[in-house]
Amino acid sequence: MQPILDISDLRKSYGDGFEALKGINLQIEAGEIIALLGPNGAGKTTLISTICGITTATSGAVTVGGHDTIRDYRAARAMIGLVPQEINLEPFEKVINTVRFSRGLFGKSPDEAALERILRQLSLWDKRDSQIRALSGGMKRRVLIAKALSHEPRLLFLDEPTAGVDVELRKDMWEIVSALKEDGVTIVLTTHYIEEAEAIADRIGVIAKGELLLVEDKASLMARMGQKQLDVQLSA
Ligand code: ATP
């Protein structure tokens, strides 16, 4: 079966010549949850940004659902939802308009039933007419996910969705991710937390200094490596 995401020898150098991605290879099957673990500066955001077309790869190739992200950008991007690390929401906008507008940006026709489904899925339906500024941090994160799902993508990237949030909110996020998987959404998330990867991922990748050091089934990785060893690797 064709992977939903296929990354071949992806490299990214920034203008100063710094090589942030040093030849990443990764295939992801539809329906999987992959957690990419890595310390600050490992290249996690650069990887996601390059796949999503926010930055341009120096070389290599990425396909999403068989669509090349350069040659066939629109088709590939239509299949991708992106939840960025920072909360980039308009504070005075209503929840429902935020999601509605995002859907429009992807050229999808208005579909109030789809909007309702997405907002209900994230327990935001009762808050649909609230302004973003009135929401708690946890609810704002839910809106970010709803916005990313507005055009009904099959592949969702979550860039450090629980960075700086408390334990309660972290668990809340894990439940959302599991529910999305049940709905058939493929998820790639980045994290610093090994317990997060362990709690929700099917496979875990370890990324450091622009290299994907390993990608392995969670159970076999946990059995093979003690948590201590992984912690050492992540803090290197
Ligand atoms: P974090 O966990 O802190 O978000 P990360 O794993 O997401 O880190 P990136 O943000 O992808 O890491 O950064 C990877 C490397 O690329 C870092 O050394 C960073 O300083 C560098 N980098 C990122 N963006 C740029 C840029 N626009 N120009 C030059 N270097 C950059």
From TrEMBL:
GO terms for molecular function: ATP binding. The keyword Chloroplast does not apply. The chain holds residues 1 to 236 of 311 of the full protein. Keywords: ATP-binding, Nucleotide-binding, Transport. The keyword Cell membrane does not apply. It comes from the Bacteria. Signal peptide: none annotated. This is ABC transporter ATP-binding protein YadG. The lineage of its organism: Bacteria, Pseudomonadati, Pseudomonadota, Alphaproteobacteria, Rhodobacterales. The gene is yadG_1. Residues 5-234 form the ABC transporter domain.
